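Title: Comparing notes on inverse folding

I've been comparing how different people in this forum approach sequence design from structure. To keep things fair, I'm posting one structure and asking everyone to reply with a full sequence. Here's the target:
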């Protein structure tokens, strides 16, 4: 399941990182090389700190996506007893019946943790979307 989730989310992550890295000015790399930095030092001391907003954005968005995904376990890990199915699928299957206990567990376990992650990392998400270039 981990490999499947990585394969599905890799293109989105590559797109975000590629767009963000292309917005980093080349002057910073050239200044570090003139100061005597090796390519590894340029990456770890110049480029990687500038990637913090996009890295946090990718972590938050992908974790919420994976946390709320119930189709991949349903399609790729079917079982006779449905032991791999999340509560969201039970809620989806019982939408026309009244199983309030499953609905409450769905809200408690599937909805509230991603909401808390979003609230705590909202500042980093906004910083990641607004920091298109280094200003100074």
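Reply #1:
Here's my take.
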């Amino acid at each position: 399941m981990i490999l499947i989730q990585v394969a599905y989310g890799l293109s989105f992550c590559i797109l975000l990182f590629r767009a963000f890295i292309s917005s980093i000015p080349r002057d910073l790399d050239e200044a570090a090389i003139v100061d005597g930095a090796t390519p590894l030092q340029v990456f770890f001391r110049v480029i990687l700190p500038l990637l913090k907003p996009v890295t946090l954005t990718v972590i938050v968005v992908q974790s919420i996506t994976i946390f709320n995904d119930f189709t991949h376990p349903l399609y790729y890990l079917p079982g006779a007893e449905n032991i791999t199915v999340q509560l969201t699928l039970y809620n989806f299957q019982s939408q026309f019946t009244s199983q309030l206990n499953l609905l409450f567990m769905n809200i408690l376990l599937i909805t509230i943790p991603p909401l808390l992650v979003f609230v705590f990392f909202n500042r980093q998400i906004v910083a990641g979307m607004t920091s298109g270039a280094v200003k100074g």
